[in-house]
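pipeline/complex-builder :: batch 7 item 3
reading input block
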Amino acid sequence: MKLVLKKTASLIITLFIVSLLAFLAFQIIPGDPTTKILGTNASAQKAEALREQLGLNRPVTERYLDWLVSFLQGDFGTSYSYLRPVSSLLADKLPVTALLTLLSFALTALLSIPLGIASGSMRSQAADHLAVITDQIIMAIPPFFFGIISCYVFGVVLKWFLPGNYIPLSENAAGCMGYLLLPALSLALPRIAMTVRMLRGSIRDELTENYVLTAKSRGLSRREILLRHVLRNAMIPVVTFLAVSAAEIMTGTIIIEQVFTIPGIGRLLVSSIGNRDYPVVQAIVVLLAAWIMIVNFLADLVNHWMDPRLRS
Amino acid sequence: MSLLEVNNLKVHFHDAAPDRFAVDGVSFSMEEGDVLGLVGESGTGKTVTSMCIGGLLPREKADTEGSITLDGVEIFDCTQKELNRILGKELSIVFQEPMTSFNPVYRIGRQIQESLYVHEKELSADRKKELALDAMRKAGLPEPEKTWRKYPHELSGGMLQRAMIAAAIVTKPKLLLADEITTALDVSMQARILELLRKLNRETKMAILFISHDLHVVNRLCTKVIVMQRGKIVESGNTQEVFANPQHPYTKKLIAAIPSRRSTLRN
Amino acid sequence: MKNPTKKKKNRYLLTGGILSGFMTALIVCGFFWTPYSTTAMNAREKLQPPSWRHLLGTDNFGRDVFSRVMQGAGTSFLIAVMVVVIGCAAGILIGSLCGYYGGIADLILMRICDTITAFPAILLSLVIISIAGSSESNIVLALGILFIPSFARVVRTQYAGIRDLNYIKAARLEGVRTPRILYAHILPNTLPILIPALTIGFNNAILAEASMSFLGIGIQPPKASLGSMLKDSQNYLASAPWYVLGTGFMMVVLILAFSLLSEGIQQSTT
C-alpha cells in the first residue's frame, strides 16, 4: 500500500514534468499564432486583440499554470484552424482511437501469451524452427504494410469490407468493431511476434533454473512445472514489454488510422501537424504521454505484485 | 530386498567422446536406515549417479545402462508418470544451492508443502499446513509460522537449506538424497545441518545417501562410504575402516588432503 | 563437461549476411544505375503488371517500379545510416563518460534517457517535426537525437563494468591519458554489444523514416523513399497492387535482412 502511494506520487511528479516540457516545447515555435489564424494581411490591432484574447501577452509561468489548470478541467484550448474548442474536436475522435488501442492490445496479450507458452515448451525441433522463422518474418513487417496488405486481400480481392468506409460507433457498434478488427490485428501482429519471442526465450531460460529441478524432484509433471513455477517468473520481463507494446500500439494508431481512414485522434494529429494547429497537437501529445506513463505505472505495479524481490 | 540397489550403472552423454563414460559400472546397495557417503572430486560422476537414481537425467542427453531399483521398483523402466509418483514421496532430493533451489516468487510455506500437494491431494489445506509446519519444526526452523510467510530472498542460506530439508521430509520419504547440501554453507552451519541429518536418521529411520567432495564431512556423518574416481568405484566399506586403512591410492590422497587440526596449527 | 562436437553453424549470420549484403549492393547500385529512368514518364506503359521487362510492373506515370524502389530504398537507407551514425556517435560519447565517471551527472542523464525511451520514437519525432518543421535534415536530426538514449544505455553499462577491471587500472597507473583509455582500451570491448545495437537501430530508423514519410511528414515529393512510395501506391491498390506490394516487400526484406544479421551477430558473440 505504501509502495502504491510512493509510486503514485512519483507518477504525478513525472506527469507534471512532462506537461511542463510539452507546454514549453510549443512555446519556442517560430512564428506568431495570430498570423496563422488571421492570415498575414491582418492589421496589427486585430492581431493584438487576438493576442490578448488568447492570453499570449502574459508571462510564461502564469500561462503554464493557467493552461495546466484548464487542461485538468478538460479545457484543452481552442483550435487555430477549426476555431473550436479542442476538447470538442477530441470528444468524438478519442473513443475511436481508445477502442482501436484496447482491441489491439487485447489481441496482443490474449494471443501472445498462450502462443509464447506453447512455443517455449515445444519439444519438437522442426516445429520450433518453423515458429522462429515465422516470428522473424512477422517482426519484419511494419504494421502499416500489414494494413495495406489486408486492405488489398480482404477489401479489394475478397471484398469482405470496403476500405475507407468506416462505420461510426454510434451507428452500428458491431459493425464498427468489425471494421476495427483488421487495423487492430495489423497493429498487434508484430507486437505479438515480439512478445511470443520474448516469452519463449524467457521460459527457456527459466526452465534451466535450479528451482525447476527441485520441482521435478518433487514429482510435479511438466505441465505443472510450467504453469505453477515457470510461468510467473517468465512473465516478469514480459509484463514490462507489454507496457511498451501498449505505448507502441497507441502511437501505431496514428499511422494505421491513415491506412484504414479511421477518424481517430491519429488522423487529427497528422492533419493538425500539417496545419500547424498547435493547441490540438499539444493536447493530443500530452494525452498520449499521460497514457504511456500510466500504462508503465500499471506494469510497474503488476511486476511488484509478481516479483516479491522487488518489494524489499 | 534392499531399499536401493544400483547395479552396473553406466551413463554416456551424447556429446562426450565415445569411450568416455560419466558413470562406468557402478554398483552398490543401501538398506533401510543406512547413511551412505558418496565421495570423490567434482566430475567423478557422483551427481550423475544421484540424478539417475531420481530419474532426473534427461533421456535425450544421455544413454544409460544397468539397473537401479528403489524399494523393488526398477527406475529405468518407469514411465514419467510412475516416476513422478515416487519422486518427493518415496525419495526426496536436496540440492547444493539453497538460494536458487527455491522458486523466488513464491512463499517458503507453499514450497515446503508442495510434495503434499503432489502426493497427498486428498488432505485438507489445514492438514497440509499442519504437516508442513511440523516438518519445519523437525528441520529446526525457528518460528515456523513466521518463516512460512517469508520469501526465499528474505532467508539466509542456512535457513533455506533447513527449509529445503523440511520440504524433503514432509512426505516422510524412505530415502533422502543429499547432493552436496553443505557445500555452499559456512562451517558452523555445516555442523548444524549434519547434526540435523543425524537426528532425522535416528528418529525416522530415513536412509540418507550423502554426496560430497568433502571426506571430512562424510566421516562425521556416514556409517558407510563409497569413493568414486572417473566414474568408477575405487573403494567402499565401513567409514571408520576406510579411514583407518585406505587401500586405494586415490583414497589415501583424499584423506591426506583433509586439513587435520595439527597441520592447521602448524601452518 | 567438454563439448567435442563442432560449434553449430550459425544460420542467422549466414542468411542475414547474404541477404543484407545483397540488399546493400542493390541499393548502392541504385545510386548510380537503375534499369530505367526513375523520373521519365511513359503514358503508353502506365500501370503495367510485373513482366520480364518491368520486374515489379509500372506505376501510374508508366515509371518502372523496380527502378523507383531501388532509388527509394536508397533514400531510406541513407537516412537510416545518418540517423544511426548521429545516435551512435553521441551515444558513445555520453555513455562512455557516464559509465566511466559515474556520479550525479550519470544518474540524471540515464534517468532522462530512460524517460525518453519510454516514449515511442515516432511520437517524439512527430512532436519535434511539428515544432521545427518538416524537412529531410530535420527528420534525420530528430530521429538521430531520439536514438541517442538506446546507444548511451548499452555503452554506459559496458563502461561501468569495465572501468574497474585490472587492465584499465594498470593503464591508468601507467599514465595513459583518459581519452586513450576510453576509446582505445575500452571501446573495442563494447563492440560485441554495440554492433547488434547498431543493426537494431538501423532497422528502427528504416521503420521510423518509413512511418513518417507514409504520414506525409517525412520525405517530400518528387524525392521518394520507401515510406512515401507506399503512401503514393496506396491510391492504386485496386488498379496496380504490384506497386504497393513490391515496395512493401522491398522494405520487409531490408528489415528482415538486418534483423537476421543482428541475431546472427548476437549468437556468434555469446
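note: DSSP finds nine helices and no strands in chain C.
queue -> next item
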